[in-house]
Specification:
It is a multi-pass membrane protein. This protein is mainly alpha-helical and 301 residues long. The protein has one domain. It has 11 helices and no strands. Helix 2 packs parallel to helix 10, helix 5 runs antiparallel to helix 10 and helix 6 packs antiparallel against helix 7.
Length: 301
Amino acid sequence: MRKLILLAIVGLIAQLVDGSLGMAYGATSATLLLATGVGAAATSATVHLAEIGTTLASGASHWRFGNVDWKVVGKIAIPGAIGAFAGATFLSNLSTETAAPVMSGILLAIGIYLLIRFTGWGMPKGNLGKPVRKRFLAPLGIFAGFVDASGGGGWGPVATPALLASGRMEPRKVIGSVDTSEFVVSVAASVGFIIGIGSAGISFGAVAALLIGGLIAAPIAAYLVRLIPSRILGSLVGGLIVLTNVRTILRSDLVDASDGVQYTWYVGILLVWIAAVVWSVRAYRREKAEDAADEQASVPA
């Protein structure tokens, strides 16, 4: 019971992060499940089954607050579903010993990206312009869907920055559209895992716990998307994902690092993580002060 309550809290926090940044629900949840010893394919299957409910609730909440561009959702969701099904099939066919380090490696790359992206630059910004083209969205959806299913998370970290960098959508609509399209991706990944591994190893109690936590957080996150400091949150989540997945890799049969080597890595990562969060807080405060000064200078005397 204690483990299920913990998973519900994880689901709540992960959905708050995902609904605010447009990414990291799967990466956060999968990282925790993988660290507790759940198999890689079962971990990704559990997360994606839970995401069917959380993404549906998140999409509905974002739609209610006007954060969804349905044309973008229509162009990216189906390619994303194709990529997710392929990724689920790929992971299901890997051996248990190989799958865990592979998944941790993908999650580690996502964590490093989040840590660098948000610490150094915050949320990507661009100039609003023409509609996003299908020839850009379709390949993006296929790639993001494959990474998402094979790594237990990755739809948001791949799709959200790419759409933001295009400069053709408001950040809130990018986040809302990515979260909404993820429902289709989660369904496709779940079908792929059920065909590939059946229900073996999938903890439906964990699915329910993650789902309940995510459902509670979804409407809150959709509202907070305009208020929460994404730069600080991105640094915090990125560091957590990096630390946890390095731990999984170092303890895997492929590496089997000694305790001394493990602790050296942990201390090094913690120091970098703390420095990154401190930098993000200072950068956020500096940006707020600059924005306030610009607003004050624009007011007629």
